[in-house]
Task: inverse folding
C-alpha cells in the first residue's frame, strides 16, 4: 500500500459529508491496518493487571485530538516509537464529536491511517470520552436520555472504540442526605450502560469501561463517594459480569482550565492526596486500575511527574493541544482572524457578563474547529506537518513525565490483540449535543 493511497483515503474520509462514503473509507483503512498488525484493542486487561498490583508506576495518557487529528496522531505514534511506549489512548468526548465534526467512523479511520503512515505495529486504543448524561434531559425523560447514550455507544463500538468512559456523575444528587442516595442515579445508570456495552461488545473483546463519581469542576471526591458508588454499582450488575476498570474523580481541576481576564490560565491547586488515597482504595478494595484525572493538559509542567508517583491510572489531556494549534507560529494569522470573527458572530450568546474578549475567545474557539475543519485540513501539507512536529515535543515531554516510555513490553504481556471486523449498522448516527464536558 503506497502512502499516496492512504492519503487519498484519509482525504476522502475527512472531506466527504456522506456517512456511507466515510464508512467505505474506514473499511479500507481498517483492513490495511490489520494487514500491518495494527489492531484496535481494549486496555481492560492491562488495567485489571494494575488492579492486582502486578504493574504500576506509570500513568496512561488519554489524548483528545480536536483538530489536525491526522498530523497530531502521527506525532503521537512517532513519540511512541521513539520511546518504546505502548500504553497511550486516543480519545474523543461526546461533546467534541459535535463541535469538531468528527464522528467515530472518521476519528478511527484517521487514527489508524496515522499509525499506518508512521509504521506503528501493535494495539491501538481508541476511547469514547465523557459519554455524559445530560442532567436536564435525564430529569425530563430518563429512558430517552439513556437510550441516546446507548445509540452513541453502539455507533462508537461499531467503529472500533473498545474503551468507553461513562459519565453519569451529572445525575448525582447532592441534596440527598445520605451519600448512597446521592450516588444512586449515578451507579444505577452506569451499571445499566455497562450491561449494554457487554451485550454489544465484539466476541473476544472485553471493552474497558470507566465510571465517574465527581463531575469535573465540582466538589472534590471523597472515599465515601467512591465506596458508596462502587458498592451500589456492584449490586446493580450480575455477579459474573465484568464491571468498570477505572474511576474518574474530581480533584480541583476544570475542563480547559480557569481563564484569567488576559486570556492566561490560572494556577490550579490539584489535590494529589485525594488521587493517591482514592486510587489505593480503588485498587485494594475493588480491583480497579485506580483513579482517572480529567482536565489536566493546562496544568503547569512541573505537575505531571506527580501522577505516576501517586499511582494515577490515567490522565486526560485535551485543551492544551488545541491551544498549541491556534497559537503555533505556522498557523496562518489571516485564518485565525476569520475564525475569531466567526466566533463573535456565531457564539455571541455564550459571552458572559464582564468577560473580556480574551476570555471569550479562549472559551469558545473550540467551537470553530468543526466549521473550519476542512479549511484547516486544506492548509499546505508542509505547514500542517510543521505544526505536528512542534506539538510532538509536548507529547514527548508528557510520555516521559508520565513514565510510559519503555512500556511496550508490559503492554505486549497483558494485551493480546483480537482481530475484529468493522460492524456498520445501517442508518446509525446518534444525535450528539456539542455542549457538555470535554
Result:
Amino acid at each position: 500500500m503506497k502512502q499516496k493511497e492512504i492519503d487519498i483515503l484519509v482525504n476522502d474520509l475527512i472531506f466527504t459529508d456522506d456517512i456511507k462514503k466515510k464508512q467505505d473509507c474506514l473499511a479500507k483503512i481498517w483492513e490495511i491496518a490489520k494487514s500491518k498488525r495494527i489492531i484496535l484493542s481494549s486496555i481492560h486487561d492491562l488495567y485489571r493487571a494494575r488492579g492486582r498490583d502486578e504493574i504500576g508506576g506509570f500513568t496512561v495518557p488519554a489524548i483528545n485530538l480536536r483538530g489536525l487529528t491526522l498530523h497530531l496522531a502521527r506525532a503521537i505514534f512517532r513519540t511512541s516509537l521513539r520511546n518504546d511506549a505502548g500504553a497511550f489512548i486516543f480519545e474523543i468526548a461526546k461533546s467534541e464529536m459535535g463541535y469538531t465534526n468528527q464522528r467515530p467512523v472518521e476519528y478511527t479511520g484517521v487514527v489508524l491511517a496515522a499509525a499506518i503512515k508512521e509504521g506503528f505495529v501493535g494495539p491501538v486504543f481508541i476511547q469514547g470520552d465523557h459519554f455524559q448524561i445530560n442532567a436536564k434531559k435525564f430529569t425530563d425523560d430518563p429512558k430517552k436520555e439513556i437510550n441516546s447514550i446507548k445509540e452513541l455507544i453502539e455507533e462508537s463500538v461499531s467503529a472500533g472504540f473498545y474503551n468507553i468512559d461513562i459519565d453519569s456523575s451529572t445525575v448525582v444528587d447532592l441534596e440527598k442526605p445520605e451519600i448512597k442516595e446521592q450516588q444512586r442515579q449515578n451507579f444505577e445508570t452506569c451499571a445499566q450502560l455497562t450491561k449494554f456495552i457487554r451485550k454489544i461488545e465484539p466476541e473476544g473483546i472485553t471493552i474497558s469501561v470507566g465510571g465517574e463519581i465527581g463531575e469535573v469542576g465540582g466538589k472534590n471526591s471523597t472515599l465515601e463517594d467512591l465506596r458508596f458508588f462502587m458498592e451500589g454499582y456492584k449490586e446493580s450488575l450480575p455477579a459474573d459480569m465484568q464491571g468498570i476498570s477505572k474511576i474518574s474523580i474530581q480533584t480541583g481541576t476544570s475542563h480547559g482550565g480557569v481563564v484569567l481576564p488576559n486570556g492566561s490560565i490560572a494556577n490550579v491547586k490539584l489535590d494529589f492526596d485525594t488521587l493517591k488515597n482514592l486510587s489505593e482504595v480503588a485498587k485494594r478494595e475493588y480491583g480497579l486500575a485506580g483513579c482517572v484525572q480529567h482536565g489536566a493538559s493546562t496544568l503547569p509542567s512541573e505537575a505531571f511527574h506527580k501522577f505516576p508517583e501517586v499511582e494515577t491510572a490515567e490522565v486526560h489531556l485535551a485543551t492544551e493541544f488545541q491551544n498549541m494549534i491556534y497559537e503555533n507560529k505556522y498557523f496562518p494569522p489571516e485564518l485565525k482572524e476569520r475564525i475569531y470573527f466567526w466566533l463573535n458572530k456565531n457564539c455571541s450568546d455564550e459571552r458572559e457578563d464582564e468577560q473580556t474578549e480574551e476570555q471569550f475567545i479562549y472559551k469558545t474557539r473550540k467551537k470553530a474547529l468543526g466549521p473550519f475543519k476542512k479549511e484547516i485540513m486544506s492548509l499546505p501539507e508542509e505547514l500542517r506537518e510543521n505544526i505536528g512536529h512542534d506539538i510532538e515535543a509536548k507529547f514527548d515531554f508528557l510520555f516521559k513525565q508520565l513514565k510510559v516510555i519503555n512500556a511496550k513490553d508490559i503492554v505486549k504481556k497483558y494485551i493480546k490483540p483480537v482481530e475484529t471486523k468493522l460492524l456498520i449498522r445501517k442508518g446509525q448516527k446518534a444525535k450528539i449535543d456539542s455542549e457538555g464536558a470535554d
